[in-house]
Amino acid sequence: MPTSRTWFAALLAISLLLSAENSKAELSLHGFIQGNYGLNTASANPEGKDSKLAEERAQLKLEADQGPWRLFVKTDLAWDHLDDQEKLELREGTLDYAAASWDLKLGRQMLTWGLGDLVFINDVFPKDYEAFFAGRPLEYLKKGVDGVKIGLYPGFASFEVVAIPQFTANHFPEARRFWLYDPLPGVTNRQTVTPDSSLDHTEVAVRAYRDLAGFDLSLYGYRGFYRQPAMQLDNPAAPTQLTLWYPRLAVYGASLQGSALDGVVSLEGGYYDSRDDQGGSNPLIPNSQARFLLGYQRQFWEDFTVGLQYYGERMLDYGTYTATLPPGLPVEKRLHDLVSVRLTQLLRHQTVKLSLFAFRGLSSGDYLVNPEIKYNLSDQVWVALGANIFGGGEPWSQFGQLDRNDSIYLQTRYEF
Amino acid sequence: MKRLALLLLFSACLAVNALAASPEEIIQKSQTAFFYPGKDFKARVMMKLISPGGQERVREMTMLRLNTGAAGGEQKYFMYFFQPAEVKDMTFMVFKYPEKDDDRWLFVPAINMVRRIAMQDKQASFVGSDFTYEDVSGRDLADDAHELVREETLNGKACFVIKSTPKADSASHGHKLSWVDKATWLPMKEEYYDRTGRTVRLFTADEVQMVKGFPTITRRTMKNLQSGHRTEVSYASQDYNIGLDPGLFSERFLRQPPKKWID
Q1: Do B111 and A142 touch (CB under 8 A)?
Q2: Which of A197, A319, B37, B188 is deepest in the core (most CB within 10 A)?
Q3: Residues of chain B contacting A138 with CB distance shorter than 8 Å
């Protein structure tokens, strides 16, 4: 498995070669230095500390252009004070080639598909939820994928085809730093099995998009794995060992976005085909689902925007799920749905940004509230102060289980 | 003799034209000269936001414009940001429609996301500056009633002074006075009033250059007279009729704009 360090070394070597080979290559170097700190307001972490994060971070973005070729490396070096260690992370590292009607991107890359604001249907790419819940800048919610993307632009529509030979799981809050619901606290013998790299395990994601009467239409397909692990027990009646693994998944979906009702209207849907549990008879593997999203965004006055969303997940084999669920495990509802609101007000020549984001679970009754104030002191320096507040619902529901993890956070960045 | 007669006839026509032009025609010609010259346009724009205390913020971008309809009609805009560092590589695309709300897309490079943005208010500030979206891409002619107030000379240039008053009672702003240069049809000065009659903003064209035969305002200032904040815009380079491909105005190139168009 290539580590960040090997990726980084390889890309650095290519970029140096590119720039040395031909002095016409255009090089640019940008980045930032960032401080990011949190303070728990509800309780200490399970491991005892009073903060979800405390770190300084430097990011370097190196870009080299040479005719149709482009090399891009974005790498972070972080000093984590909670774990008292340095971390080197290759955020992105890609080699691009652009022809007239197609292009290619090879390497670790960020992909964002779909229309959801913090809810994802056809964005099947890895996320870092701990980063978001701990109070990192939003871009850290996204994780890169290691793969290749081919873009095809024949004119009548555009296509993106992504192949990912190396599986990347979502990063969920860790039990050291976050209080989380654990259905089997007694089982301490645990292991995680991730899909190994093979042709058979290569994930494929396809997107086709074009304009349709002034609306942006996209169709999506994905064949790969759930990025949230499922449980497998050695003995369901009296488990002693728990294996976390990633069941196979296929997603077929569509989205439509355009100007309507004095704002921007978004519609998205997807069919989640749980390929390892197509009959729905294994309650420990996610049921196949229909997911849908309705979004509306509108500017009510200068620099004040409101975004509203309704999002739902409906289990498609609910009867078999409830019939086979072992006693003692929480019973999920057939429909899991939530609403969200995002309010954004910019002030003082857009140097001050007040924002409020909130989820409210309709089926589960839980919530997440994320207020934030960001101030750009100059073109180079900004500082943001915010909070993540969780609660409501059941001890196992999405945000309800995070109830004891409320925190405030500070982000400050010098960009160059 | 023949030549002199022609010249006389020509200048007579010009004078008659100018005399006969209605206020609507003057504003229409002014908008054509200001927002629509050429088939397409490219400029490297330096925007300085200057606070009353003198603190400067810089927005540097390449702006591309393609006329897809007649003068006063549909246009496509593409903007690529170089500065500040926080928005470097960000791109912004507008399909401007005179009769309905514009379509706007924003590309956020940090997460490689293209998103439509809701921005119904054309009076809203453009990237935090003292210019509004309307100041950058033009206002619908039919939204205002136009009136020729007087003719006067401004900095040695003969100008029409036109008063444009919003027709809609709901308009948040008041009228505007424009000094339109009779020779180039470009606005040399504009005073923006609020509904109580106070001057709120002042626009001045600080430098005009001929570029491929099109008179072009290459330096301009918009000052907020209430707050004292001002924005100075200058073009580091500009060109017309460069053969912009309509295919450039697409999601593909929002995500990865071709160097030859943005540099």
Answers
A1: yes
A2: B37
A3: 111
